[in-house]
Amino acid sequence: MSVLLKSFQYKAWANKRTLEAIKRIDSSEFPSTISFVKQQLNHMIIVEELFKARLMGVESPHKTTNTTTLPSLDQLERRIETSDAWYYSYASQLQDQHEELVTFQFVDGLQGSMSRAEILFHIINHGTYHRGAIGHALDLCSVAHPADTYTVFIHAAEPDRRLAR
Predict the structure, then answer these.
(1) Tell me: the pLDDT tens digits for 120-148?
(2) Quick check: 100 and 116 in contact, CB under 8 A?
(3) C-beta of residue 40 within 8 angstroms of C-beta of residue 134
(4) Which Pfam families match (predicted)?
(5) Which of 14, 23, 79, 143 is the most exposed, having the fewest neighbouring CB atoms within 10 Å of its CB?
(6) Phi, psi of 103 (to 5 degrees)
(7) Rounded Cα–Cα distance for residues 41 and 19 (Å)
(8) CA-to-CA distance for 160 and 151, rounded, in angstroms?
(9) Alpha carbon distance 35, 31 (integer Å)
């Protein structure tokens, strides 16, 4: 399996662990943290949906990279799971188009172009950044945030790698 596909498996695994940790936040004690977490997740999924549209060559589904009204955590979780599955499927079917340039317009009106591989890397990296911010918010609420690094994932997915050689 390619490192790209493993990276999308990792992304889905890390998202799931983060979403499970978020559910342990006491929303009555930490309502502003819940709002912050929802804002981060909402932004994360909107960016994924924007880049999905760009990869597919269809009209942008969003005019901004966040919204003033935030979806529920359940809605965000479903959208993230759907996006994770779509990106894994897309990456698994991408054959010799990795370096093909995709031109598009960012929501701020500026033009951009990235290769399909660069877009996929951006999606993986972007989620990592926002899960880190959520991890800090979890710490402030005394909710243990999950170790979600690639090294933890790969050794959980392939425990034989822990064996001495």
Answers:
(1) 999 999 999 999 999 999 999 999 888 88
(2) yes
(3) yes
(4) DinB
(5) 23
(6) -100, 145
(7) 9
(8) 13
(9) 6
Distance separating alpha carbons of residues 41 and 45, to the nearest angstrom: 6
User: Which residues touch 157 (CB under 8 Å, ≥6 apart)?
Assistant: 9, 13
Beta bridge partners of 111: 105
pLDDT in tens, 20-38: 999 999 999 999 999 999 9
pLDDT band at 8 (very low <50, low <70, confident <90, very high): very high
Q: What are phi and psi of 97, to 5 degrees?
A: -100, 10
Q: Using DSSP, state whether 112 is helix, strand or coil.
A: strand
- 1: pLDDT confidence band, cut at 50, 70 and 90? low
Q: Going by C-beta distance under 8 Å and a sequence separation of 6 or more, which residues neighbour residue 84? A: 8, 11, 12, 15
Identity of the residue numbered 65? T
Query: Options 2.40.160, 1.20.120, 2.40.128, 1.10.10; which CATH number does 3-92+101-162 get?
Result: 1.20.120
Reference 77, options 41, 30, 113; nearest CA is 41
Q: Hey, where are the domains in the chain?
A: 3-92+101-162
